[in-house]
């Protein structure tokens, strides 16, 4: 879901649209049964906080404040993606969002630019960590475990590199990760995502992180790296390598 201006239009529908980048697609095996065939992606909704005590002085909820827009200025062009804070100076996003970058530009919900100090990407999963010198305005809690089929899910990100949106849906199943089979299962949700949504946080009904958006299927479903995988990768000191400079 990295939105890019350096590639052509998305090709004909395939089983998986890798990263949801404009023109960045890969032909992969169809998702295995059973997966409901009558799921319709939900439309974008306006986030309505559950309680006024969660609002910041500027009127934005903590869930909105933790999401960031990531601009990848690479040797070959410009692309955009999303990310979210997990502590005051650490962001989670996708590996393909930050790959081949010359400069990473991070901005918050209110347009504030944050200086990036370092970035690293996971060797196996489509995950990356970005460190910022400037403090991030908010970060969410992590859920106690992975969600189950039927659980509510919201995706918070910056589709097309534009305004912050929150889309709602539910977990509709699981599948073997079509890109990284050794990592086991990933989650399938019908919450709507678009190019630029890669790296968005997927949240449960209580606003806790349950996964990371990384790809979209040709029938409009979204794939999530589950929380358990994210936690396992973050706990492995050897799982990440420093982001190499792009090649010109």
UniProtKB/TrEMBL annotation:
Gene Ontology molecular function: peptidase activity
GO BP terms: proteolysis
PROSITE patterns listed in its UniProt record: PROKAR_LIPOPROTEIN
Superkingdom field: Bacteria
Organism (species): Isoptericola luteus
Official protein name in the record: Serine protease
Signal peptide range: none
Keyword Hydrolase: yes
InterPro entries on file: Peptidase_S1_PA, Peptidase_S1C
Record Pfam families: Trypsin_2
Keyword line: Hydrolase, Protease
């Amino acid at each position: 879901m990295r939105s890019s201006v350096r590639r052509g239009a998305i090709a004909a529908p395939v089983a998986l649209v890798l990263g949801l980048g404009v023109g960045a697609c890969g032909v992969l095996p169809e998702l295995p049964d059973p997966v409901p065939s009558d799921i319709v992606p939900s439309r974008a909704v306006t986030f309505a906080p559950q309680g006024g005590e969660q609002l910041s002085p500027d009127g934005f909820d903590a869930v909105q404040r933790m999401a960031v827009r990531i601009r990848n200025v690479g040797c070959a062009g410009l692309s955009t993606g999303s990310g979210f804070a997990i502590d005051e100076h650490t962001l989670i996003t996708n590996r393909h969002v930050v790959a081949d970058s010359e400069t990473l530009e991070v901005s918050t919900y209110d347009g504030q630019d944050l200086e990036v100090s370092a970035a690293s990407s996971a060797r196996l999963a489509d995950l990356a960590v970005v460190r910022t010198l400037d403090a991030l305005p908010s970060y969410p809690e992590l859920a106690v475990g992975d969600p189950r089929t039927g659980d509510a899910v919201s995706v918070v990100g910056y589709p097309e590199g534009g305004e912050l949106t929150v889309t709602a849906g539910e977990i509709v199943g699981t599948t073997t990760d079509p890109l990284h089979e050794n990592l086991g299962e990933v989650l399938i949700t019908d919450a709507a995502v678009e190019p630029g949504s890669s790296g968005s946080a997927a949240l449960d009904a209580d606003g806790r992180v349950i996964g990371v958006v990384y790809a979209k299927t040709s029938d409009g479903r979204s794939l999530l790296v589950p929380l358990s995988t994210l936690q396992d990768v973050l706990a492995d000191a050897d799982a990440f390598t420093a982001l190499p400079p792009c090649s010109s």
